[in-house]
Write a structure and sequence with these properties.
Blueprint: H1 14-17, E1 24-28, H2 33-44, E2 48-53, H3 56-66, E3 69-72, H4 79-92, E4 97-100, H5 116-144, E5 147-152, H6 167-187, E6 192-199, H7 208-212, H8 214-223, H9 232-243, E7 254-257
Parallel strand pairs: 1-2, 1-4, 2-3, 4-5, 5-6, 6-7
């Protein structure tokens, strides 16, 4: 067997292994929330980051801040997902890291009332686009001799969430966990690791109403074991660990970061 990636010194400290100097990363959903937080963390660790999302103004501002490259595209158009990876490769070099953080809950209807359009749109954005980005990143990672793909799943792919109807969203997120396990099996021989992070509830544009409403806050407290709310900074550490050599012997796993929500 090889040393996994062939480029990590076993004598280096775990802090050194978190460094990403000289590596190229692609982050989708990078215009806000977890995606933007992950992009900043990867850049802070030394990576050159390609930023992919719909909102060009936000992307370009973040790219200027991080010294990265912005690719504005709507990942609902799944043919553009692979193109975005190729553009980053042309500008920054072959990507060794892909973090697919773009996703949304596009329907708030109960399962029996979800429209076919909403179901298909949710699956395209949350499952098909990350798969297409991984396919596009694959030959570049093979060329480099290593790679790490991190899908952003959700606890909604593990457990039903009371009072939050989201059947297609939950299906898409569980699909990401299955995809990561299958790609890990197929691509492990290339030293490409594939994992997922399943966040619980944290403050973002999508969940803002929960944190500004007294009943919402009480609901969160009732279901979370830890006595404080989670934020983006509580999620990015898990992603950095999986993206870096600190997690180089971890593949095919879904890591839950939820304040204990699913531990009951």
């Amino acid at each position: 067997m090889t040393d996994g990636a062939g480029k990590s010194d076993d004598r280096s400290s775990v802090f050194d292994r978190l460094r990403l100097d000289g590596r190229v990363a692609v982050v989708s959903g990078a215009s806000s929330g977890l995606g933007a937080g992950v992009a900043r963390a990867l850049a802070d660790a030394g990576a050159r980051v390609g930023l992919v999302a719909r909102r060009r103004d936000r992307l370009e501002a973040l790219a200027a801040e991080l010294g990265g490259h912005a690719v504005a595209c709507d990942l609902q158009e799944v043919t553009r997902a692979g193109d975005a990876v190729e553009e980053v490769a042309e500008v920054l070099g072959p990507p060794e890291i892909l973090v697919a953080a773009a996703g949304n809950r596009l329907s708030q209807e109960p399962a029996e009332q979800e429209s076919l359009d909403d179901i298909l749109a949710t699956l395209r954005l949350n499952l098909v686009a990350p798969f297409r980005m991984a396919q596009a990143a694959f030959p570049h990672m093979v060329e480099v001799g290593r790679g790490s793909i991190v899908f952003i799943s959700s606890i909604s792919g593990k457990v039903g969430v009371p009072s939050v109807p989201q059947a297609s969203y939950a299906a898409s997120k569980l699909g990401l966990s299955g995809l990561c396990a299958e790609l890990a099996v197929q691509w492990g021989r290339h030293a490409i690791r594939v994992n997922a992070v399943a966040p619980g509830f944290f403050r973002s544009e999508i969940t803002e109403s929960l944190y500004t409403d007294e009943r919402g806050q009480a609901w969160l407290r009732r279901h979370t074991l830890l006595p404080y709310h989670g934020g983006v900074d509580d999620m990015v550490g898990a992603v950095l660990w999986l993206a870096s050599d600190a997690g180089r012997y971890v593949t095919g796993q879904t890591v839950t970061v939820d304040g204990g929500w699913t531990a009951r």
